[in-house]
Amino acid sequence: EADIYQTPRYLVIGTGKKITLECSQTMGHDKMYWYQQDPGMELHLIHYSYGVNSTEKGDLSSESTVSRIRTEHFPLTLESARPSHTSQYLCASSVWANNEQFFGPGTRLTVL
Amino acid sequence: AQSVTQLDSQVPVFEEAPVELRCNYSSSVSVYLFWYVQYPNQGLQLLLKYLSGSTLVKGINGFEAEFNKSQTSFHLRKPSVHISDTAEYFCAVKDSGAGSYQLTFGKGTKLSVIP
Question: CB of A51 within 8 A of CB of A71?
């Protein structure tokens, strides 16, 4: 079944640790996105990719980095986690930039 | 840059009553419009979308929305809600121009259906 997956679903980690949030999709979509979601706030785009070896920063500044070595895989990395990184991170993909985006279930990150 | 206003942060409604969730966006340029639903501890699921054509759009789970260009609105409606409709609903807008990637979301409306 075509879908978009995120792991882990929940992560509690101490300050200073390096973490990677995984996102994979089996729909063959070229476009992939990372959003940050805080309670009561809009979703903010932090990274996007239009294809392999293409990554751009979104409208919300983020200390995270991303890579796109394979079409189906778009991991997000934080080199040194801080409490300010505590949030929910949502991955999405789309066929074209002008069409609907399909979302994964999210990763809820807590940095102590 | 686009902005999206969802006028109500929380909407309580009794089961089987009608509901309207309001959404206004800022720009009058040609846009694509979306409503997403988010259940607890899950990602966003597309309810419906407006790309072009008829201004009345029907989506899943009995929801519909009407695009009003003059009022820059895209309100979501359901004639009779069910307990399972309890969730958070997000309105989103995107410029339809080529090369535009930005999907701008509202802050969400929490719908609580009361038995």
Answer: yes
